[in-house]
Every structure is written in C-alpha cells, then in structure tokens.
Amino acid sequence: MAQDEKTRRSGRFWLPDAPEKTVGGWLDLSSRWPLLILADPLTPSMREVSRSISADGTPFSTMVPTDDGQASDSLVIHGMIRNPSGRVTLVGAVTAGRSEIIGGVVRDPGEQRFRAEYVLVGPHQVGADATFTMARIRVKHLDSWANLPGIAMELAEDWSQITARYEKHEQASAVMAGGRELVLDEVVNLQEPTVLGAGFKRSVELRLNEPAGLTVDEWWRRFVTPMTELLTMAIGVPCPPVDLKLFRDENKEWVDVQHPQLREDSGDLLHAYQVFLARDRLTLDHLARWLEVAADLSPIPALVTETISAHERPLPSQLLEMTIAAEGLHRRLQPKAQVMTRGQKDRARKQAKEAVSEELKERVSEALMHIDAPSYIERLRYLTNLTREAIPQAAGLMVASQEEQKLDTTKGWEDRIKAVRNGFAHQAPRRDDAPDDKEWQEQVILLRTLYWVLAAALLLQTGVEPAKLRERIENYEPYRALLRQARQWLPAIYVVQPTCPPTEHLAASSTLED
Fold it and tell me: What is the Cα–Cα distance from 217 to 206, expressed in whole angstroms?
C-alpha cells in the first residue's frame, strides 16, 4: 500500500493555455513511462476536418479521431498532486487511450489516458524547452566508487548507550572550461525517530553547473549518460542513473525529474576489491575530463558498456557490435588518419581506371573512393598499440624483441577479430576449423578481451595514466580469470608469458586489498 501511495498520486490537471479547465485524475509513476489517468478528457476525441451543406440545407460535418496521427497531440500538462501536495509538469504527453460511453442515461465524456516522456516535480515549467543551470545526479554504486570514510559508532559495553556520529567531509571539486565545476557532494537523509529506533543514511551525488543553461534532454545527453557510461566501465558493473534534480534560476528551486531511464537504487555497497577503478585511481578530475570529450566519442561508450549490462543478448550480435565499435572508436580518435596523400590517391585511381575497359571505369573509381583510409586491421592495430601498456595481454602476447618474435601473438588476435567482423557483416560461411561445440568459446574470449581493449582506450581519454590501469588490472581478479580461461580456450594466442609475476604474489596482493 505504501508503494502505491508513492507511485500513484491523485490531483487535478490542466493545459497551460487553459488553466480554467481542470480535470481530476491520477498520476501513476509505477511503470517505466509516466501514465496520467483523467476522469474526464482534456482534449476532444473527435475533430472536424470539413463542413458542407446538403441539398436540403442541412449542415454536414466530417469528423475524424483527434488522436490519429496528430503531431499536436504531444502536449505539456500542468497539475497539482496530493499527499504530499506538489506541482508537476508532464512533458511530451500523448494520448495512450480513452474510455467513452455513448448513449448512457447520464452523458459521460469518458476518461482519457496520457503517456508522458518524463515528469518534472516542482515549479511548473514551459515544457521541453525549459532550461536549467545546475544538475545533481546519483547513479548506482556511486558510493562504492567515491569510497568516503564511514560513519563512526560508539557502543557502551553494557549497551546502555549507542552513539552514531557523522561529520561532513571536505567537498571535492574539479574546475572545467566555461566556468563549469564538477562537485562530489554528500547527502544525508534522516529517519524519523520512533519508539522502534532512529538513524540516518549518507549517500553521495555529482553536481555540475552550466551557466548557459541546458534542457532536460541536453542534461541527459551531456551529463547523465556520460557519467553512467564512465562509471560502468570504472566500477565493472552496470551503473544506471537513479536520481536527477535540476535547478532553475528563475524560481530558485530544484525540480525532481521522473524519467523512464531512471532505475531503483538498491543501496547495495560493493566491497573495495570488487570495484575496478575507485576514486583514488579515477579521480574527480578524470570525470571532469571525460565530460569534455564524451560527446565526440558517442555512441561508442554505450556499445562498450552494453557488454556489461546486456548478458541476455545473443553472443554473436554482441561481438559484431563490438567489432564495429572498434572501427568507430579509431575514427573518433584519429579522424584525419590516412595511409596516403591526396595526390597519391588521385594517381592510383587514375592509373586503375586506365587499366580497365570503359564499362568498368566507373565501378573501379567507386571501389577506390576510400583507398586512402586505413584498413580495418590497421585501425585495430592502433587500438592495441594504444592500450599495450595499460592492459597487458588482452590482445595476446606482445613482445618487441626480435629474439622472441615467435611469442608475438597480437596479430593472430587481430586477424580473428577481423575475420569475425567480416564474417558477420558479409554473412560469410563459417570457418571449417571451428567445431560447433568450440566456436562459442572463441567468441566469448574475443568479446571479453575486445571489451578490455576498447574500455582501456576510452578510460585513457580521461587522462588516467596507463601505469595506474596496469597496476590495478594485474590484481583485478575478473581480468586474471579471463586470461586463465583464454589460455585454455585459445592457447595459440594466449600463451604463458615468462615475465608474468608469480601467482602467489598476485594472490597475496589481492588478499591484502580485500
């Protein structure tokens, strides 16, 4: 019952340009999309498209359903809800259904149901165009990344007195371009004291100011999404957003955003050893740097992090997307990369056209249009070289000395990634040397190692030092377990490296960190 009261609120609702016509109803926030159920319709169910006069002088009107194919049906709806009372703005509301009774004893215009893109709880807003100058977000497991000192508790030996003490820590911040500032702040929620007990809960949030002002969609694209993607890679588990609040200078009040992509916060706290990169390695300055570059990298981070959160998707489709993401990431990191000059390209195309018959000239010219662009394998080699120091052995063993050239298995890994990409993209016949019961094993290893190469390349864009990544990953058990599995399933690529630290030393380091 308590959950129903929280997610289903009664109130009165109206259109901003017709505040005199208010309709009672219920705002339901229990499902993904906010649903408004009104006892009477806000908009008519039929609209007139033409009017004429019949031969006998009778006026005749042609009516069609209002809700069919009308872009104007996307509305902004204002409301006042009860228990507790508050103002709400439904943005992007479209009619989701109606229930109308015709011919009854009492005229009943019927109910109308709206589905909204999102709801703003707080001062009424103009709609999707409203801009806000500050945002506060919480994402799942943010507390595990921040790893702030805990709350002290004093307990008398005879349990006659229990004292919990909280002290706010110094606020951490990072200055960004354009007068922006990213802040890590603490939020304390007190529980109402009762005869059964009392207490409080401390959590952390990220706050960013934007003097120019951003709309809800812009805040989501430039702040919420980049932070969830980066923290998902940094922590190693899905970190969806759980709370978003926006500040508007005009009314000096915070607005609570009820958005379909917000998730429930379970409040689970990860152990320190479960977090791949906590705040001591991936600092607030690194997060600020990520916000500066994330827009240029999109949508590659989304494809990479989906590997962590979408385990139920078919393995081949995940692997195909990751191979595509590898090419896309290189294009974003090296947008002007070329393997020949403009003059060399023009001469090569000219000579090729002269070497074929007239009917093939146009086809050859089109085929050589991008001859100056790097090949897929060259793009992949750039990424493996970029992450060579940070993520050892993810793409096989990379040895530079001539004497140990036989141990350089990176090319074999790159060739397999390329074969997967071309095979999926062009629906090529499957390889004969991959038995049915073994092909999935190779795909698992290629998917997970390609994830680490791409994730490392993205994390390096925050300015984190490669040595910091290497130091952590050599003691990160999920990565070590992946390499052990890779040596079993793909021994031709993942051979034992003679310079690896002893297993006993790594285990001891992991134990100390735990």
Answer: 18
Using DSSP's 3-state secondary structure scheme, residue 393 falls into coil
More confident residue, 64 or 83: 83
Compute CA distances 92 → 77, 129, 220, 259, whole Å: 9, 11, 16, 12
For residues 304-328, average pLDDT: 88
Helix (H) or strand (E) holding 325: helix 315-333
Cα 270 to Cα 290, 377, 468, 511, distances in angstroms: 23, 38, 21, 16
Q: Which two tokens stand for residue 486?
A: 């890779």
Q: Tell me the helices (H) and strands (E) count for the chain, helix number first.
A: 15, 17
Which phi and psi (to 5°) does residue 47 adopt?
-135, 150
Q: What is the DSSP letter of 126?
A: -
Measured from the Cβ of residue 52, the count of other Cβ atoms closer than 10 Å reads 9
pLDDT at 363: 74
Using the predicted structure, report yes or no on whether residue 429 has a pLDDT greater than 60: no
Name the amino acid, one letter, at 76.
Answer: V
**Three-state SS for 33?**
coil
Q: Is 109 helix (H, G, I), strand (E, B) or coil?
A: strand
Give the span between the Cα atoms of 130 and 135, in whole angstroms: 13
Structure tokens at 170: 């110094």
- Per residue in 18-27, pLDDT (tens digit) is 999 999 999 9
Could you give the angle at which helices 436-460 and 300-309 cross, rounded to 10 degrees? Answer: 130
Taking the CA atoms of residue 374, residue 380, residue 383 and residue 388 in that order, the dihedral angle to the nearest 10 degrees is -130
Average pLDDT of the segment spanning 16-44: 91
Residues 10-32 have a mean pLDDT of: 93
Give 79 or 59, the one with higher predicted confidence.
79
| Residue 135 DSSP class | E
pLDDT of residue 310: 75
